[in-house]
Amino acid sequence: MLKTALIIHGYPQPVVKGHFLYDFFEQNGWEIIAPYLFTDKFIFTPENVQKYLENELEDRKPDVIVGVSLGGLIAPLIAQNYPDSKLILIATGSCFKPKSKIIGFFYKAMANKKLLGLAYNSIGSMPKKILSSFYAFLSRPYTKDASTREIYRQDSQKNIELILKIPINKDEEIIDSALKIDNRQLLKTIKNKTLIFAGKKDILMPLELSQKLKTLLTNSQLIITPGQHFNSITKDNIIDLKIFLA
């Protein structure tokens, strides 16, 4: 019988075929459930996402639950109902608390409907080169490695294209939910065996949040990588995944 992996994606990128996490589970014979969450089928709230994911699972019990960034804020809600499932949390925390005050202010401003509408009107007419530069300023790659910077550039461009495709009302729901989630009390009750990946230079979900996660989750292990938010886990960590899932 196939093992089941429930993958909860972050904002704005889904985890689909071609993403190394998806490919890892597929190549190792797992059944993958990784639904797109920014759908018009429901209002985006943690509770509604939980119901949607459990409906997607149907009668299956996930052998592992993977939460990436925003998905890592949702994952504990699912894990509490499946205490035997292993839990993998990537670039996340018990809440959303960026290291950069500029990023924190930016997201709080975007939770305001009027400001979000103004931002979309501005973004829609903004040349992609300028938009990419602004995005890079918010979460710039702290590395001189040319290949890593190129991966970051491609990831940033993809993020911008995906953000612009998400309806403005859905963006408002997502950002508002992300700002309100606080799992500190819930995490104290989670007994699932957990593996946490954190990028040492992550400024969106800083290392301190992942370290706090480890203290709240009594059955957890923390792996600190040299990366940032976009590369807090890479193909180099496949061996860590294999050992954890063995």
Report a brief summary of the structure:
By secondary structure, this protein is α/β, with parallel strands linked by helices. The chain has 11 helices and 6 strands.
Strand order of the largest sheet: 2-1-3-4-5-6
How many β-strand stretches? 6
Average pLDDT: 87
| Class inferred from helices and paired strands | alpha/beta
Assess the beta-strand content as a share of residues: 5-15%
Shape: globular
* Computed Rg: 17 Å
Note the total helix count: 11
Could you give a short account of the major beta sheet?
6 strands, parallel
> N-to-C SSE series?
EHEHEHEHHHHHHEHEH
Low-confidence stretches: none
Q: Give the termini separation.
A: 16 Å
Instruction: Give the fraction of residues assigned to helices.
Output: 40-55%
Walk me through this protein's architecture.
Helices cover 48% and strands 12% of the residues. It has helices at residues 20-27, 46-57, 70-79, 101-110, 113-124, 128-138, 146-165, 168-180, 184-187, 207-216, 238-245, and strands at 4-8, 31-33, 64-68, 86-90, 194-199, 220-225. The protein has a six-stranded parallel β-sheet with strand order 2-1-3-4-5-6, sandwiched between helices. The mean pLDDT is 87.
